[in-house]
DNA sequence: CATGAATGAGGCTTCATTCAT
DNA sequence: AATGAATGAAGCCTCATTCAT
């Protein structure tokens, strides 16, 4: 039993090593400036080996984002499925989940975006393409459900819940991207966390119906 | 006199033709998949000519964003300098300005991110680098001023105004990016506008203090 | 063991094939008119492969001269170290060495000039730069030693020995260059040899003191 | 009369300005690294103008050497034709002439060599090609005549006089090239002069029959 | 399975030359 | 005659991918 299993585990470990290496490089130098040789040497493997685990550079790239997406999906679904929570509590949990998503792979949020451009998706293998689209859709769906519930319960202003989840995600990624491009990420992780915290606070406040009721009249 | 002027104008027109062509291609195929030959042929010029107007591909790329930055700066300063307006009205104007920035060059907002990364700035000519850094700083500064005023007048929650402007910009670009990556850009321009409108509404609501009844009546 | 060694040998053989091809082309068409593709096809390799062995075209060029320099150095040191010989005999041996240097790589003596120009050295890798400077210095030093000895023993006219070695080398390369530029190289190798012989004879005679009768008897 | 003449003179002056500029650049950066634009700007003219005076870059290059060759030829013929002088005195005058040739265009001796390679000559206009070959042949012929006379009068060792003139020229150019590539030229002109002086002294001594008679026996 | 040398297509860039003004 | 912007051919070099060991 042991031998077979160990082989499997070794293989998976290698795959992970490649992903981690690629992640580090893509985030540091960008996708096109990172060469397969760079990645191989960062992973302490040979270039040829990379092709045993990933069809080509594009798929390696996509697989990276897939990892984050999978984690995101799990967390978001978990919050959504927890029927004991009030909508407001769920959003709080959702925000916590986003922090964790960021911590899970701080360097890779950027890549997630380039990927979603359909131009980049075109060349992926059908399997991967489907996986990615599916996960994206499901995650956004779960987030939407949460907001939907809040709207229905009269807590949140009335609007299309998918729009809320889109904006929620855009805000998250926008802030992460901006801080990343200011290169503050490595030096000052907490700075980003504070920015995220404030962003989410503003967003949550803005979403709620009760507080600035009067404003509606003026609009 | 006429001859000199016409030459100047022709030259500027060519420069613009190149920028437009590059913009179209970068937006369609991404920076690294657009070749200089592509761009030249899109602009109906020869490759060599591109290099008469731009030092290299990177600089052409950066110049594109510079255009947007310049427009952004002008608009934002204009709002900021208008001392007749209340802070809230200024934010409304600011939001209008953002719509116009988007309309000014819908395809190129994405590029603005890469610009601030020092990795990308490294290869630019000092002149361009300074221009970009300067405009970025000034624009963010002007937006911050607007929020600062609102904070001082007790309209907005208390926090660092630069953080507000950062988040404001992140939200804007995050939404634009997300919609762009959904490739809905060409077909559903208004869909993006609606998203932006909702985003800004949530942001504005979130920014306001819980019971700013008094101010509200005055607006 | 065998496998490792064979790989090493194969690699070295390839390196040599490239050097030989480059040498042939540089000599025939000159450095700038020989393209990397030319060289690759002459060596029956692909362009990319050239860059596995040499950093760039300049460095390939320099490596060629390095080969000659290394050979020159070995030969010259060997003569210099042979303490059994009289200075005059050493110069004779030195002259023989120069013939062999020429035979070792007849087409490439010209390149040796460009090498010493700091303009050419600038782009080389530090390693290569040091190697070249070192070998040049050592070789000229060894030749100078030989002349120095002759001066001290009163055989040669009194002057700075480094000047003698400079002139000796200049004469050698001047003659080789001139004959090369007359394109007689391929057809009349012996013509060049005769020219060299006469050159060295004149040089040797000119070096000797007017009435060195005594030493002469001893030789 | 004046107008026509002045135009002619202006034209010639411009030609010279181009030649001087090209000379400076070719010597500093080499032929292929000097661009026509470089040359034009050094001459304070436009690139287009260069082509009004020279068919192409190669011919501009050749014209440069032609200038030196013409000067060399004049000086050498002058010495040769002066029937009042003894052969030894003629050689002294010849050496003086070489100094002047060097002074006339110190930077351009190197170019003279590249030119003589028939590969480079091939692309020149027939007119220029003939001029160059003719001048070279005539100059070498004149120098040979001088040595011939010395041989006939029993002053110089017996050998083919053309060989002597070839070696004489090779020595001169070899020394100039070597010092040039050591980059000593600009900083220390006199250093080169001293080297040349010593070279010619050795050469002259080596050429003479009378002094080291004994040596012959030993050879 | 892993390796890493070899490949070769293709990109960026330069620059001699031309030509309309 | 002078200009200098435009051209476009061609060179150097990189790098994703393959394949023999």
Summarize the structure.
The structure is a homotetramer of 219-residue chains. Chain A is an all-alpha fold.
Shape of chain A: elongated
Number of helices of chain A: 12
Question: How would you describe the oligomerization state of the chains in this entry?
Answer: homotetramer
What portion of residues of chain A is helical? over 70%
Main sheet attributes: strand count, strand direction, barrel closure of chain A? none
Strand content of chain A: under 5%
Radius of gyration of chain A: 20 Å
Low-confidence stretches of chain A: 212-219
Assign the CATH architecture of the largest domain in chain A: Orthogonal Bundle
Q: Please tally the β strands of chain A and state the result.
A: 0
Q: Helix and strand succession of chain A?
A: HHHHHHHHHHHH
What does the model show?
The structure is a homotetramer of 219-residue chains. By secondary structure, the first copy, chain A, is mostly helical. The first copy, chain A, has 2 domains: 1-54, Homeodomain-like (Arc Repressor Mutant, subunit A, Orthogonal Bundle); 56-207, Tetracycline Repressor, domain 2 (Orthogonal Bundle), CATH 1.10.357.10. Chain A is built from 12 helices and no strands. Chains in contact: A-B, C-D. Chains A and B meet through helix 6, helix 7, helix 9, helix 11 and helix 12 of A and helix 6, helix 9 and helix 10 of B. The structure holds a DNA duplex (21 and 21 nucleotides).
Relevant terms:
12 helices, 79% helix, Arc Repressor Mutant, subunit A, mainly alpha, homotetramer, DNA-binding, 219 residues, Tetracycline Repressor, domain 2, disordered C terminus
């Amino acid at each position: 039993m042991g031998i077979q299993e160990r082989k499997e585990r070794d293989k998976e470990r290698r795959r992970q090593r490649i992903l981690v290496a690629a992640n580090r490089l893509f985030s540091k130098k960008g996708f096109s400036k990172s060469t397969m040789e760079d990645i191989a040497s960062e992973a302490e493997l040979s270039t040829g080996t990379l092709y045993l685990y990933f069809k080509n550079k594009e798929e390696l790239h996509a697989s990276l984002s897939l990892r984050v997406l999978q984690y995101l999906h799990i967390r978001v679904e978990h919050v959504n499925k927890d029927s004991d929570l009030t909508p407001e509590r769920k959003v709080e949990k959702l925000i916590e989940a986003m922090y964790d998503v960021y911590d899970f792979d701080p360097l890779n949020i950027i890549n997630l975006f380039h990927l979603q451009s359909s131009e980049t998706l075109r060349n992926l293998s059908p399997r991967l393409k489907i996986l990615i689209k599916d996960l994206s859709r499901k995650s956004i769906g779960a987030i939407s459900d949460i907001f939907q519930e809040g709207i229905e319960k009269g807590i949140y202003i009335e609007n299309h819940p998918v729009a809320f989840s889109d904006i929620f995600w855009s805000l998250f990624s926008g802030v992460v991207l901006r801080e990343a491009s200011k290169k503050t990420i490595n030096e000052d992780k907490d700075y980003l966390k504070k920015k995220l915290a404030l962003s989410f606070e503003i967003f949550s406040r803005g979403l709620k119906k009760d507080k600035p009721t009067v404003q509606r009249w003026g609009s």
